Amino acid sequence: MFRNNYDNDSVTFSPQGRIFQVEYAAEAVKQGSVVVGLTSKTHAVLVAIKRNAEELSSYQKKLFAVDEHVGLAIAGLTSDARVLSNFMKNQCLSQRLTYDRAMPIESLVSSIGDKAQINTQQYGKRPYGVGLLIAGIDETGPHLFEFQPSGMTQEMVACAIGARSQMARTYLEKNADKFPDCGRDELIKHGLRALKETLVQDKELTLENTSVGVVGVKEAGKKNLDYFKVHDGPEVKEWINSVADDGDAGAEGEGEGESMAVDE
User: What global pTM score does this model have?
Assistant: First the structure.
């Protein structure tokens, strides 16, 4: 049960070269509600399913703005995500106060990767039990990075993490070649379609459980930034309705085949 006590701390390797505390933290990410991120030549988009612990509770926030040019989506322990997001906010603020400029996305992601990896080097600490998708824009364009509890970070064209995220990744892989040329709204719709693939049969996307975050470049000119903004409630109604219409059209054309796809 206890892996021969090799899981008592995060600084001891098992004979197979594994750190079980890191694997447990990764399992916490898999238990979180799914979040999806994807990028085009002009925008980076995050979409997420929000959960409520019970009928009388509010829905848990999944998207957070870090700075005007960057935001993140979380899957896993929200308390750990709060610690990391506050650290990222302080890094961005320090960059602006010191250099009077926005912090490059890669440098910001690298800093939280280093912070998380330290917890696998020092006795008495544990890995952060949260996965992050970080979307932002800098002088090189829009970016999407994935952060894992081990401290590993990598840039992605599109990514999904959390419960049942494999279904979303399958959709993203099939349509990845379409994303670079998508506009803002079309990219959001692709994200919602990927999110919809992860839902169990009796669930659907609603104004209450869906969040959308967008950052990018305005169509008018590359120097006009579309700062990171989280859209909730009525703001996502039009996007959800357009995706629902796509599903209805597919159901009419395919008959029972659509139900089988959802059950998978």
Answer: 0.88
